[in-house]
Amino acid sequence: MKRLIYVAGAISILGITSCSKSLDVDPTSVITTGSFWKSEDDARGALYGMYVDFRATSEAIFMTGDQRSEIYEGGVYGGGTYTLHTNSMTPDVPGHPNWSGYYKTINSANLILKYVSQIKFASTAEQNQILAEAYAVRAFLYFTMSKTWGDLIIRTEPIESADPAVTIKERSPKAEVFTLIKSDIEQALQLFPDNGFRDQRGAWSKAGVNALKADVFLWTAKTMGGGEADLQTALAACEAVRTADVGLLTSFADIFKYNNKGNREVITSIRFNDLEGGNYFWHMWIIGSAVPSNISEEAKALLLPVGGGQGLMVATKLVRDQFAEDDARRAASFFEIYTYDGNGDSTYYTNVSLKGSGVIVGGNRVFSSDVILYRYADVLLMQAEAKNALGQDPSDEINEVRKRAYGAAFENHRFISGSRESNDEAILKERLLELMYEGKRWWDLLRFDKAFELVPTLQAQSGKDYLKLFPIANSVLSVEPKVRQNPGYETTD
Q1: Which of 143, 383, 389, 403 has a 20 to 30 A CA-CA distance from 216?
Q2: Are 113 and 127 in contact (CB under 8 A)?
Q3: What angle in degrees, to the nearest 10, is found between the helix axes of 206-223 and 174-191?
Q4: Quick one: DSSP state of residue 161?
Q5: Phi and psi of 3, rounded to 5°?
């Protein structure tokens, strides 16, 4: 496949300042109607380029979806990545990536959606597959962005000139954003030629979009007044996922093994290979200079070689202690490191994430595990959530997840349905234990309306609902003259 490199013209995408002379120059691009968009190979190359851009957003997806939760605290070095785990973001120090990377990827999708339909394909099914994947990426990113910032600039056409009428826009209300998201989902579902998977499940599929659909409609049902109708839609989308070739693996740890990428539990993931950058899990490993000499042999075997670990973020004791000792997910999710004195007495030192820990290449740990966006256990628990909100019994789905987690000890942990409130509590905790580190927790806390109750750094800020959104970075506002700061984060000179 061709690798496409282009420069997009949107101010949001480029992040160029308003005083830059480059604003007076039409953007340069190798993707033009004159030199590109002629053949099927051009379309495939554009699709590859979109996924390269999409991979570049994976850390931002994790940061906004997980780091504000109760899972994280500072590691051996530093106080953590940016300020998200302290919930002390400001427009000057937003603690997260701005939205330019998202819009860059959306622009890649918009180019595909505009031009691929004009190319003559030998197979209409392949053409539709490419279009479907572009709709899927655009829907997923707008969903992620709106959960993060609320109202958004809506761009459905590619940026192909520096015309201010195109590049400088106001935000649209989030209701309009979600209308687009839901429309893109339906377009994708209609275009996918079959219910299969390709590229080791590192590309969007019909099953992946149905998982996204369940996620979106759960969100709108519970945070935007969508009510029973949206819950029913979410439930039906979960059922649709189950018609694909998906299922729980017997071993929880096997889901995340490097040599088991694209396994049957994975529905959608972002692909990583050696020399393609590292995934976000390197933040949760340990830097070489921080590895003590007086640790156990088991720890040495795991930690050495250490590779490019950063050692900035680790799992909190609050969360680690919520795993039962007989829960297989505990030993497969994190590893606690202890130092030992001359008497053999141990002292807790730190911990590392075992999900996404990559592979050893040439004596170094390379963090090139795929980033899983949706997997089957996630869908089962979304199904349980929708059923419980509709007054139905969520026991089957919860127990399907728990059977693997507890194995022979399952009967000691069998879920029995109770009140809607107690069921919700159980589902939210099950999602924590199952999906820790997978970029889900902050959104789960918002959907269940538990962020101010369960996140220690938010407990003293109850009532400050504006904190549910992120501030828009001043670096973005400086180049987006029609965008206004989110309420609660405004600053005065």
Answers
A1: 403
A2: no
A3: 160
A4: S
A5: -100, 125
pLDDT tens digit sequence for 55-72? 999 999 999 999 999 999
The H-assigned helical ranges of 256-394 are 297-303, 317-320, 328-333, 376-389
Dig out the tokens for 397 from the structure. 């789905």
* 77-113 pLDDT tens trace: 766 555 789 999 999 888 777 899 999 999 999 999 9
**CA-to-CA dists, residue 186 to 48, 138, 210, 232, 386, angstroms:** 23, 12, 9, 16, 20
Residue 354 pLDDT: 95
Tokens 């400086």 correspond to: 478
Helix (H, G, I), strand (E, B) or coil at 218: helix
Cβ contact 130:193 at 8 Å? no
Contacts of 168 (CB under 8 A, 6+ apart): 11, 480, 481, 482
Give the closest residue to 153 by CA, choosing from 198, 199, 107: 107
Q: Which residue has the tokens 């970075």?
A: 473
pTM, to two decimals: 0.92
What are the distances in angstroms from CA 165 to CA 11, 62, 172? 12, 33, 15
Single out the residue of 102, 24, 171 nearest to residue 480, CA to CA: 171
pLDDT grade, residue 305 (50/70/90)? confident
Question: Which neighbouring-strand residues pair with 338?
Answer: 348
- What's phi and psi for 334, nearest 5 deg? -150, 160
Per the listing, tokens 């079959």 go with 194
